[in-house]
Amino acid sequence: MTSPTERLEVLTADALEKIRSAADEPGLEAVEKTVLGRKGDWAQLMRGIGALAPEERGPFGKAVNAAKEQIARLLEERREAFVGERLAQEMGDASFDPSEPAVPVATGHLHPITRVRREVEAIFLSMGFDVVDGPEVETERFNFDLLNIPPAHPARDLQDTFWLENGQVLRTHTSPVQLRAMIARGGKAPVRVIAPGRVFRNEQPDRTHEHTFHQVEGLMVDEGVSVADMKGVLGMFLSRLFGKDVEVRLRPHYFPFVEPGFELDMRPVDRKHGERDEWLEMLGCGMVHPTVLRAGGLDPERVSGFAFGMGLDRVAMMRHGIDDLRWMMSGDLRFLQQF
Ligand code: DAH
Hints:
- The chain is α+β, with helices and mostly antiparallel strands.
- It has twelve helices and ten strands.
- Helix content is 42%, strand content 19%.
- Strand 7 and strand 8 (275-276) form a beta hairpin.
- The protein is elongated, with a radius of gyration of 38 Å.
- 3,4-dihydroxyphenylalanine (DAH) binds at residues 173, 175, 217, 255, 258, 284-286, 307-309.
């Protein structure tokens, strides 16, 4: 009977020979399976280790490992050779040029306005506001009447309106969602909501006007809400949105649905160096008009609130230095791919 050591030598020589004479990659794989497989001669050899004297087992194990390493090295060498041959063949094939740059994979990204909207939502959510939605096709009542803009009111002319044949309108602002939010909460305070969305105006488009643009409406109603609360919340919101310390100031302005009404300006400040940028007009706001609170089912004797409306397109334009609003809804890839 041959000793395990002799048997190892025979098996190793045989394996090396088979690997050297493998004709191609599949052939090589077949050899690998028989040599290293569980059922092959090698597995049997390992089981024979129990028959050896205890002091022989260590050296024998080492010899087996060395043989396996030798086999693995040769397998790898041959495999690389086969792969090299295959590549050389493919490169020689005129229909395939491996040096050609790969076709870039086109990945999409979010529109700059979507990004601004999501940031606005995240900031207000963190301040305890809900994000709500309203219809883009609105009734005249909600878009105008209940917001204290009766038919003959000159404010109607300020917002050129798309009227539908059924007497409804494409909403000219997000303000009607204020009412819908108050009503949806059953006339109960507190109400803290923002409502971002598309709005529409029948205007001649130019660099600063579009028939379709975006606003975010905000409303906070509770007992004892004041102008100071409004200034605090909006100042905090703007400094987070722009990632800078900002100052805000209120200028009296007329909006039918608030009293008093304001335009809010902001300017970035560097308090350490006492430096201040120019004032920028940011949004319209004010204390919700008692008539509007009543229309929402709330009692103006008991609660008060502030509301605001801000254009989202303007923020995206400021951020990216875009000088023409018409790009925003253009769908033009030359524009969109820059972000
Ligand atoms: N709805 C106004 C607009 O479209 C913006 C606005 C002003 C909304 C004052 C408000 C507000 O809620 O209080 O121009």
